[in-house]
Amino acid sequence: MTDTAAPVTPKSRYDRSIVEGPLRSVVWKIAWPTMLTNAIGGLQGMVDHVLVGNLVGYQANAAIGVSWQIFLVVIVFISSLFSGMSVLVARFAGAGEPDKVDRVVYQAFLTAIGISIGIMAPIGYFATPLLLRIVNAAPAVQEQAQPFLRIMFGFSSGMLVFFMLGGALRAAGDARTPMVLGIVMTVVNLVLNVILIRGLGPIPALGTRGSAMGTCITAGLVAVYALWKLWTGGWVIAFPRDRGLGPDWPIIRELFRFGLPTGIQGIAMNIGGVLMLSFIGSLAQSAAAQGAFAVSYTELFSLITWTSVGLMGSAAAVAGQNLGAGHPDRAEQAVHIAARYGLSVAAFVGLFFVFFPRQLLAVFGMHDPVVVNIGVGLLRVLSVSGLFITVALAYTGGLQGTGDTKSPLYISMVSQIVVPLGICVVIRETGRLDPIDIWLAILAGHVTRCALSVLRFRQGRWRSIAVSIGPS
Asked: How many structural domains comprise the chain?
């Protein structure tokens, strides 16, 4: 009698529950670490605003808010490569092809670093004064914003590596590692910023300049550790060791094919934000409105948007992996689940915006009656707006994760530029533009984005999108 051993299936390095397990738990498993990381990171930004608001004044709050709005226009474009990377990583991880995953991750890193060092740093440094004039930043705001923005442009490579790493790990099914790295980075950044913003011993108080320095130093340290891990192994993703270190143009073309629309989308959204800042800057009390906007929209509203971005990333990873594994119906269900989670979070946070707006603004050192009144009006509008933007982001994740990165581009151009800016132009030309008019225009844009994103995803054309990077 002969015993026949059952064939042994090699263990995948990827979490197969994403394409085989219960979807509710899978979506939450990918989402909650990212939501926590983003929330903690958002709190770190809030601490920066609290420090500069109390030590320097609301002009410094406005400076950081304006600077980030400008900086994100550029950095989001480079980060679009990571969106293309995430599409490919999720597909290949779902199909169980680790060699292709590693090749994609390395090429995304190589391309982003080249652009950030060779293009973004030098151009950003010299263009900073012009960019601040474009957004109509008040002279006191420009004085605080210029050094902040130049430091961020010049030393952003570490931040880009961290964004790349987080996107690749989540797309491959590991959301906990970027969570741990994000928490460490936030704690170290917080310590450095407290020291550099307010000063300690022989270190002078550097104000907004210290905030930028702390962010760049911390991101650089985390990036060095991440690159060491990617080279030595131990994570679900790695740099390939059996191939050359030069560019792989077929992969880079695919990164741009899927990522470029997302990059243009990000630029469109942030240009819309910059132009919106120019409307705010044209108001009679521009500095007060910019300060209220920086805290209410950039910081407090991030309690909704950053958690929603976590759900967007989860929807993208789970939908992309399931489509790669040949389960499109599971991909669709995952996106619906992510949207429902997002609504719950947005409703909870929105209650605080409605009932405790003055208390929230006071935390940031905002006691000027004009600034507070403007901020209260904005927070109450954002309590409604958050319900729509969180659903829009979940369905955007579903579209982008499955490879439909063009539709969110067109949707964003309509909803983030045409609708809100068009409303502001009409009101300004036919009467007087007040802060509440701008806040309601933002709400109208979020409603439009939500409706169009849901409609496009339900059409289901993402089911037939194919990816390829050539032979290994």
From this structure: 1
